[in-house]
Design a protein that fits this description.
The relative contact order is 0.17. This protein is of the alpha+beta class. It is built from 6 helices and 14 strands. The strands form 3 sheets. Strands 8, 9, 10, 11, 12, 13 and 14 form a 7-stranded antiparallel sheet that branches. It has a 5-stranded antiparallel sheet with strand order 1-2-3-7-6, with helices on one face. Strands 4-5 form a two-stranded antiparallel sheet. Helix 1 runs parallel beside helix 6. The protein folds into 2 domains: 77 residues, Phosphorylase Kinase, domain 1; 135 residues, 2-Layer Sandwich (D-amino Acid Aminotransferase, Chain A, domain 1). Bound molecules: adenosine-5'-diphosphate and uridine-5'-diphosphate. Uridine-5'-diphosphate (UDP) binds next to strand 9, helix 2, strand 12 and strand 14.
Length: 234
């Protein structure tokens, strides 16, 4: 598949057109940002690792009946995907307390939650991606009631599937972020699923194998991503 015009360059990926108007190429960069790009850096080969990890997880979710944008991996850093119109929401699920949940609600990191927490954040870097609820989503026309129902249904199912998937690899899925898009009238899963977008702790040791190593300068970032890649592809 020939790479066409550059359509968009974001913080971690570049989107390119292809000869097929329904398909685009996601190119994964090594750039890393945190705290709404207040912290910037690069992580050696992150793009390669995230492309491979994400491809493997999307393949797994497709097999389990979740509609996704994933078509195939084209190269180390390139993934062919269906071109969607992104729903401007970050859909977050939390199984244990970490990050902003701890900051906002005074919880200790690692606190077990009585049930998974599903959050919507409005995808607006200029506003710091604020937390919003279903009423905001409807009032701002970000998604319809049916779409909100689909987002929740898919997200909770994905949480169940991914929790089991990672547990088999001796990793605990603490929380993660998803993005969905509209494709031919339907909602499908888009963007990426990687250690940039999930918190993953090694079972037993509690070792963090995700972007928190970059956020909080914990060191051995590349090694942590390599370790996740090794486990998901073994
Ligand atoms: P950001 O825009 O937050 O800096 P990235 O660097 O990851 O993020 O850029 C990738 C962009 O592509 C994101 O805005 C994401 O919403 C969008 N995107 C992801 N998958 C698709 C897709 N299948 N079709 C169109 N856009 C997509
Ligand atoms: N997340 C993400 N992109 C964002 C915000 C959050 O991928 O723009 C992921 C993050 O990696 C974590 C989960 O969503 O797995 C919850 O993040 P949180 O709200 O705790 O944000 P943080 O405190 O990490 O900025």
């Amino acid at each position: 598949m020939e790479k066409g015009a550059r359509l968009y360059e974001g913080k971690a990926k570049i989107l390119y057109a292809t000869s097929d108007p329904d398909l685009v190429i996601q190119y994964f960069k090594d750039d890393a940002t945190a705290f709404n790009a207040a912290k910037k850096g690069t992580v050696q080969e992150k793009g390669i690792m995230n492309n491979k990890i994400s491809s493997r997880i999307f393949e797994f979710l497709e097999k389990e009946g979740i509609p996704t944008h994933f078509e195939k991996m084209l190269s180390d850093r390139e993934m062919l995907v269906k071109k969607v119109v992104i729903v401007p929401l970050e859909v977050i699920v939390r199984n244990r307390a970490a990050g902003s949940l701890c900051r906002n609600y005074g919880l200790q990191e690692g606190t077990t939650l009585s049930c998974p927490v599903l959050e919507f954040c409005y995808k607006r870097d200029d506003l710091n991606d604020p937390l919003i609820n279903d009423y905001h989503v409807l009032a701002l026309n970000l998604a319809t009631e049916q779409e909100i129902a689909d987002l929740k249904k898919y997200t909770l199912k994905i949480n169940e599937l991914m929790t089991k998937f990672f547990k088999n690899l001796n990793l605990e899925l603490i929380d993660f972020k998803l993005e969905f898009g509209r494709y031919k009238g339907k909602i499908i899963l888009a963007d990426e699923i990687s250690p940039d977008t999930c918190r993953l702790w090694e079972v037993g040791t509690g070792k963090k194998l995700d972007k928190d190593r970059f956020r909080h300068d914990l060191g051995n970032i590349e090694e942590a991503y390599q370790e996740v890649l090794r486990r998901v592809t073994k």
